[in-house]
Every structure is written in C-alpha cells, then in structure tokens.
Amino acid sequence: MTRLARRCTVTVCRDCCCGTGKHPDVDHDGQLRRLTTGAARVRVSECLDVCEYSNVVVVQPSPAGRRAGGRPVWLGFVLDDAALDAVTAWVGRGGPGLAPMPDLLDLYLIARPPAVEPTGPQRTISDSR
User: Fold this and answer.
1) 27-46 average pLDDT score
2) Which one, out of 11, 35, 37, 116, has a CA that is 20 to 30 A from the CA of 89?
3) Ordered domains of the chain (ranges, CATH)
C-alpha cells in the first residue's frame, strides 16, 4: 500500500456553490493548497448536492481509521481559517477513527445526504511528500 493510500482522503466540493464567487472573501485555491500540504489526500469533486452548506468538505478515514470504526465526516460552511486549520490538524493526527475530532468542528458538522453521488468527474490532488 502506498503512503498516499494510508492517509485520510479529504473531498472538497468545488462546483456550483462551493469554491465559487458565492464566497468572494474566501481564497478557495489557497484552501486547496493548504489541504494538499497537510497529511491528507485531497480530491476535488463536482457538486455533492448539499449546496445549502457551501463550502462542503468530507473527511474520509484512512484504511486503518475505517478498521478502527471511523466513518466519513461531512462538514459544511468551511469558509474560515480556524475551520480549515482544525481539519488539517485532525487529519494530520490520523482523522476519523484514529484521532478525536477537534471540538471546533462540531459547529461545522452536517448530515450526509441520502445516496450522495458526485454529479461529475473527480480529480485527486496531493503534494509530493
């Protein structure tokens, strides 16, 4: 198993509402850069069908985290540095199943919509570590 496959995966919605001009004060490209220099594998997805919670981020456990009981965690309104810092720190410690979620992220939790399937192609981006 490659080193990337052992890490959490963070899926970042970047379609009709998330990652667009809807939030002009947010550096969406900067958010992606910060996430990719962290400990997570980052996927950019088209619409995840929870537009009312824009900017949506889904933290998926690593294989070890899943074996330990971790499940994907859906976060909405991830628009500020504090939330992004908490996500980055959490996945750096192992993420779902391996490390407790920072209390701050309780404020960003959203329910996973039923039968979510991205509406279009996804691409994976990551750093060269």
Assistant:
1) 87
2) 116
3) 4-125 (3.40.30)
